[in-house]
């Protein structure tokens, strides 16, 4: 059984579509019901402690506190608290429960530039989370580190997001070599690569997805 935490987000919604296209069984664990999933494909939880993790062998976590574009650069003290509660504490708590109950493969959406030593709060928390997960001993662990995600969102783009995507159209062709990973990327492609990396095509190991490449994490 595939478990999916965060199916209402941009990447998560495409993970759902990809799993359906491959006719794989899955259960999406959401905080609200979505109309594109049947009752057999989703469960709504207010408290994660009430959920039975025992059937998970392969899990995807695509969760994140909804930040504005400028908050990726600077967060207020209160925003930092809310962000940390979701992007670190909640995800780490889920991973611990999954590992304890026999989950072998875990795929997590992180961020390009994730680094625990970064001066940027957003990137430092993403990096610290990756380190914690690496130390938990999953047979296969996959981090997707996408740049700015492209795709149709539930809420209209704000002006800052519009500018990022406009700038990306101009700058992306010049981001080559090691800089390629910073390009804007379609959320659909990220979902496809996550599922590909979690398949039997890739042996048990730790992997990172940067732009359109799946590489062993070194």
Keywords:
eight-stranded mixed beta sheet, 218 residues, Rossmann fold, 10 strands, 5 helices, two-stranded parallel sheet, alpha/beta
List the helices and strands and how they pair.
Blueprint (H helix, E strand, L loop, with lengths): L1 E4 L4 H12 L4 E5 L11 E3 L13 E4 L15 H24 L4 E5 L11 H14 L5 E5 L4 E2 L8 H13 L13 E2 H11 L8 E5 L2 E4 L2
Parallel strand pairs: 1-2, 1-4, 2-3, 4-5, 5-6, 6-9, 7-8
Antiparallel strand pairs: 9-10
Helix pairs in contact: 1-5, 2-3
**Tally of separate helices:** 5
What is the strand arrangement across the widest sheet?
3-2-1-4-5-6-9-10
Reported by name, the CATH topology is Rossmann fold
The number of strands is 10
Q: What kind of sheet is the major sheet?
A: 8 strands, mixed
Structural domain count: 1
Q: What is the CATH first-level class name?
A: Alpha Beta
Helix content: 25-40%
């Amino acid at each position: 059984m595939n478990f999916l935490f965060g199916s209402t987000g941009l990447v998560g919604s495409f993970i759902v579509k990809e799993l359906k296209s491959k006719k794989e069984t899955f259960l999406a664990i959401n905080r609200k019901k979505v109309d594109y999933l049947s009752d057999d494909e989703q469960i709504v939880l207010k408290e994660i402690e009430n959920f039975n993790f025992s059937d998970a062998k392969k899990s995807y976590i695509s969760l994140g506190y909804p930040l504005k574009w400028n908050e990726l650069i600077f967060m207020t003290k209160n925003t930092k608290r809310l962000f940390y509660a979701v992007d670190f504490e909640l995800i780490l708590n889920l991973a611990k429960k999954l590992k304890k109950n026999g989950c072998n493969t875990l795929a997590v959406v992180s961020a390009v530039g994730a680094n625990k030593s970064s001066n940027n709060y957003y990137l430092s928390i993403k990096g610290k989370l990756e380190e914690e997960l690496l130390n938990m001993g999953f047979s296969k662990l996959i981090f997707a580190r996408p740049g700015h995600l492209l795709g149709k969102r539930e809420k209209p783009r704000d002006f800052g997001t519009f500018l990022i995507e406009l700038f990306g159209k101009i700058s992306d062709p010049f981001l080559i070599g090691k800089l390629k990973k910073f390009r804007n990327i379609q959320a659909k492609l990220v979902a496809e690569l996550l599922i590909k990396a979690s398949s039997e095509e890739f042996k048990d190991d730790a992997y990172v997805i940067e732009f359109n490449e799946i590489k062993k994490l070194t």
